[in-house]
């Protein structure tokens, strides 16, 4: 039985989607773990063709772990992602996400654009659902020296110069995905005992 980790994201210009793909690579570097790349529905005038399917409540309910990503919108998660979580009351009432591991990731156009506040706002609904939040520990050497994205709260990217992810950002993002997958697979093993 494989461990399924949902990598849920909202991305307007592609940077958060790129982070999601690196999280997924980290997840799938763990034997027996599968990453499900999913997005949320748009509800404004920025309709575009989604490159990944929209997450269903059934997929969220049955996942073994969750990575969630959003661009920074005024120091907060994006409205479509927040709207998605506002629809999860039935999972909250049922306790369906309790004790599942989760992590967050984000992208901003500037280094001080609100990455850590956005990561914190993304954690709030996860905590209300009883999920266990994972960050990036300082045992990751790159976290001490990065001049780009990456925080102890989760993976991040500074996209201001329209460059791709830096090597540090890639390393930290993939390591976070791997950490999430390892914990999810360990938790799944405990639930079968």
Largest sheet: 6 strands, parallel
What is the mean pLDDT?
A: 92
Report helical residue fraction: 40-55%
Strand tally: 6
Indicate the CATH architecture: 3-Layer(aba) Sandwich
CATH class identity:
Alpha Beta
Distance from N terminus to C terminus (CA atoms, Å) equals: 14 Å
Total separate domains: 1
Give short descriptive properties of this protein.
193 residues; alpha/beta; Rossmann fold; 6-stranded parallel sheet; 40% helix; globular
Structure explained in plain terms:
Its cofactor is FMN. The protein has one domain: 3-Layer(aba) Sandwich (Rossmann fold). It contains 7 helices and 6 strands, in the order E-H-E-H-E-H-H-E-H-E-H-E-H. Strand 4, helix 5 and strand 5 form a beta-alpha-beta unit. The longest helix has 25 residues. Strands 1, 2, 3, 4, 5 and 6 form a 6-stranded parallel β-sheet that branches. With 193 residues, the chain is of the alpha/beta class. Helix 1 packs across helix 7.
Task: Write a concise synopsis of the structure shown.
GO terms for molecular function: electron transfer activity; FMN binding; NAD(P)H dehydrogenase (quinone) activity. Belongs to the WrbA family. By secondary structure, the protein is of the alpha/beta class.
Furnish the topology, listing elements before pairings.
Blueprint: E1 3-9, H1 15-28, E2 33-39, H2 57-62, E3 65-71, H3 79-86, H4 89-94, E4 101-108, H5 115-128, E5 132-133, H6 141-145, E6 155-158, H7 167-191
Parallel strand pairs: 1-2, 1-3, 3-4, 4-5, 4-6
């Amino acid at each position: 039985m494989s461990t399924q980790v949902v990598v849920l994201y909202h991305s307007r210009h592609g940077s958060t989607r790129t982070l999601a793909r690196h999280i997924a690579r980290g997840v799938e570097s763990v034997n027996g773990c599968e990453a499900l790349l999913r997005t949320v529905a748009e509800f404004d005038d920025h309709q575009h063709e989604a490159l990944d399917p929209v997450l269903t409540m059934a997929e969220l309910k049955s996942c073994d772990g969750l990575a969630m990503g959003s661009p920074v919108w005024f120091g907060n998660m994006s409205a479509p992602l927040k709207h998605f979580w506002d629809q999860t009351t039935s999972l909250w009432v049922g306790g369906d996400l309790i004790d599942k591991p989760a992590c967050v990731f984000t992208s901003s156009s500037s280094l001080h654009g609100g990455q850590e506040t956005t990561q914190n706002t993304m954690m709030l609904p996860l905590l209300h659902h009883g999920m266990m939040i994972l960050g990036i520990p300082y045992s990751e050497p790159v976290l001490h020296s990065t001049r780009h994205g990456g925080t102890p709260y989760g993976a991040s990217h500074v996209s201001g110069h329209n460059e791709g992810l830096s090597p540090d950002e890639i390393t930290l993002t993939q390591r976070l995905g791997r950490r999430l997958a390892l914990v999810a697979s360990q938790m799944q093993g405990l639930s079968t005992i």
